[in-house]
């Protein structure tokens, strides 16, 4: 099993790959998808997250107050 991150030119990520990129647990990514906080596309039984949706999610995170 490789610990390398997916390439940055990748357009679609599996939930597992998205979890690595976000540095979240895989189950957290599935929860975000189920809650609608993280958009995804579905093809058959596969779920994929667009790179732009990952970036939008991160850009919308609110920083913690000091």
Would you give an account of this structure?
- Helix content is 41%, strand content 15%.
- The relative contact order is 0.19.
- It has 66 residues and is α+β, with helices and mostly antiparallel strands.
- The protein has three helices and three strands.
- The protein is globular.
- A hairpin with a 2-residue loop joins strand 2 and strand 3.
- The chain has a three-stranded antiparallel beta sheet.
- It has one domain: Arc Repressor Mutant, subunit A, CATH 1.10.10.
- Helix 1 (15-22) packs across helix 2 (26-35).
CATH topology: Arc Repressor Mutant, subunit A
* Largest sheet, spatial ordering of strands: 1-3-2
- Describe the biggest sheet? 3 strands, antiparallel
Write down the CATH class: Mainly Alpha
Structural class: alpha+beta
Radius of gyration: 12 Å
Number of strands: 3
From the 3D coordinates, which CATH architecture would you assign? Orthogonal Bundle
Beta-strand proportion? 15-25%
First-last Cα distance:
39 Å
Question: Per the principal axes of the C-alpha atoms, what is the gross shape?
Answer: globular
> What is the N-to-C order of secondary-structure elements (H for helix, E for strand)?
EHHEEH
Provide a quick synopsis of the model.
With 66 residues, the chain is α+β, with helices and mostly antiparallel strands. Helix content is 41%, strand content 15%.
